[in-house]
């Protein structure tokens, strides 16, 4: 997790906290404490705090080191401190007067003679050695677990932390009881060629070292700010009217969630106003059993034996029924309170008829258009004959053009006369009749429409001997 102010600008220089590569805001490390006394002016140099808080392994472990020379260090600087038979490299997490408050919280005395010292600012060689030994940690975890399994020890190696100079290794393990690991230490010392330190931790401490995302969507409390792990039991869930579901109440460590204790005191204070020994009250219909207590509305919910319905009763009504039961009187009714929901009623959407919104004619037109594009020769089929006059075909000198008035007169004389078409003669019914043996004869077009004839109004290739319309001429 890093703060947004540490992002690199376009000029290549980090913009934001200006802490020489570190993070003064405390967002690039775990278990950080906000230094709200940072800008406090120093009145006396001699009375200044000479202790610094240094974090290791990205904040999973923190310790206090003495700064006897009062060297100027910023938050986030890598420094070399005293280690076991060597040195270690850590990151400065707190300096100044805020360290004294943290020491008081952890019961550490500032004048402790066994407190280790700060050596110097970490050099490039110290950082290179530190990074080389950090690469060995994942392999050491896998190998140490295999050795513990071979020795049939009931324990789990959670994490291995190497010292910066590679002379010491701390093995963090989880076990339900005491473990005799004397033989295990000998094997580890010969296997890894380091001085071995075994440290037992709990399941919650392991979850804090590993880290993760909780069911609330945020980082685990044990890996960000929580340092004091209090015991959590199922009574905390009962006081808060939570269902006893082990899957929902357990965290990633397998124990009950620490957040069950956050609001427990508020619930206990609110429950003091509720009467005691009211789990069962007597009415005329039978015994009513208490289901839950609502501290927000000051209601107590009961159920009757022959009904699954829940009845909310006020505290005053429960006290009254309890006093009547002590006198041997059973009231006729529970007289439940009407509970009004403050949730807004959602308006149901109206039914909309969408069937008639789409016309099938548009689909038919699209299909006809596609069909005409696929068959170019049939594009002009189905067209009605022109009745306002006849067009003369170009290139035919023997064709007689008739005006609109003469054409209408001839068609009125002909009436409904039609020529019957024969299959062998090639003559179309209601269409154009071709006379190949007579060049001066014109084709006579009928004025009556035949919608069921697919060959109606079909155009024939140009024929110089064929007339467009009119009577047959001798």
Give the helix/strand layout.
Layout: E1 51-56, E2 61-66, E3 78-83, E4 86-94, H1 98-105, E5 118-121, H2 124-134, H3 137-150, E6 156-162, E7 168-174, H4 182-192, E8 195-200, H5 203-210, H6 234-239, H7 246-249, H8 264-270, E9 280-283, E10 286-294, E11 299-303, E12 310-314, H9 315-326, H10 360-374, H11 404-414
Parallel strand pairs: 7-8
Antiparallel strand pairs: 1-2, 1-4, 3-4, 3-5, 6-7, 9-10, 10-11, 11-12
Helix pairs in contact: 3-4
Describe this structure in words.
There is one protein chain. This protein is an alpha+beta fold and 474 residues long. Among the domains are: 17-119, no CATH class; 132-201, GMP Synthetase, Chain A, domain 3 (2-Layer Sandwich), CATH 3.30.300; 208-270, no CATH class; 274-326. The chain is built from eleven helices and twelve strands. It has a five-stranded antiparallel sheet with strand order 2-1-4-3-5. Strand 9 (280-283) and strand 10 (286-294) form a beta hairpin. Helix 3 (137-150) packs across helix 4. The longest helix is centred in the C-terminal third of the chain and has 15 residues, at 360-374. Residues 7-11, 18-27, 385-410, 412-451 and 453-474 have low confidence and may be disordered.
Protein traits:
474 residues; alpha+beta; GMP Synthetase, Chain A, domain 3; 5-stranded antiparallel β-sheet; 4-stranded antiparallel β-sheet; 11 helices; 23% helix; disordered C terminus
